[in-house]
Amino acid sequence: MQDWLWASAADLGRGIARGEIDPIDLCEAYLAAIDRHEMRDRIYARVTHDRARAEARAASARAKAGQRLSPLDGVPISWKDLFDTAGVGTEAGTKLMAGRVPDRDAEVLRVATGMGLVCLGKTHLTEIAFSGLGYNPSTATPPCVNDAAAVPGGSSSGAAASVAFGLAAAAVGSDTGGSVRIPSVWNDLVGLKTTFGRLSVEGSVALCSQFDTVGPLCRTVEDAALMLAALEGGAAADLGGASLKGMRFGALQSVVLDDVDAAVMAGYLAAVATLEAAGAEVVAVSVPELDRAFEMSLPLYTADAYANWRDLVEADPDKMYHQILSRVRGGKDVLAHEYLSLWDELRDIRAVYGAATAGFDAIVCPGAPELPPNLQRLIDDAEYYRVQNLKALRNTRVANLMGLASLALPTGVPSVGILINVAGGDDARLLRIGAAAQAALNADRA
Question: From the candidates 8, 60, 70, 80, which is the catalytic residue?
């Protein structure tokens, strides 16, 4: 049973389908692992034992009757604590929402439950999901699997830790500027930022309504494809026969290569070389207009966040961690006409980006510019926190600003990943490319 804790979600689903794994036993194995884990309370905000067991019993009965609802029917996963769970606290990592208990599930949780996924509980996150580092002094800071003294990445910090520490087969997080992909990179996982609007955010606590997306954190690209299907109630992308031969990748130069840590750059360049050895052509591509997009991103994000959080924040600002408070309040003075004009300009830049990258199957870049920062230094040095937070969010934010679908893949170098970006709406094609890339990277490490 201990092997189950480290198996892919897809393999667990296949084991259930073959009758080799009973969902009840699988659920109990995960619940026992969670309950005895020394860092349980730093990873899970709440464990939903009763719900998980009830859902596992139902999955077991379906499996025995040959009526499974999906390939992941009976597989236990975790949920970031900003997705509403009926009758169970959903507090978004902030004291401003302490004691909040919704009366219905978030739409993606409702759909996933209808596909047979088992809800293990709610994972910790950066306060209101507004940081890429994963440090949260208001609730808890989850661990990084590669460095006990470092932060895990955010904002889906507990989501990543739950998978990386063998306490969930997969996790559901949100990505507004990199919140699925940064913790995936720093914990050697696969993270999928879906196209904006593809998955419902109804019943999830909003951060920036024009950028919030839902996505899975997993062990494999196959798991990400199956999770996406379960979250939207559809069929998974066909990954069979995926190959890099004949693919043409653009290696983005603008913004994403500035001030990259040496270890990260080495791991990234080695990964690119592996993609080339597997048959892909990789060509440098620059989009200078991205510099302007990043200049605009601060008012676009903070105005959106302040609109969503103003009433709760201003009613009791002392309850919020000061670094998050200052970021939210940064949107207070953004005027409506300025905000709308910025969005018009961003749409123009998106068109320029689309034209510049149209000749490529995908665009690649380093996953995060730095390795996971030291937690104590972040606590002690406010300027270090600010700089490292913006740096962590930089490369991932390209996809959010440009309206892309994006996949984070581990390279085999601890806490170093690559991003593969494609046009919005091409999630299935992205997953096929990602499956081929992951196979090449894994083979290179064998």
Answer: 80
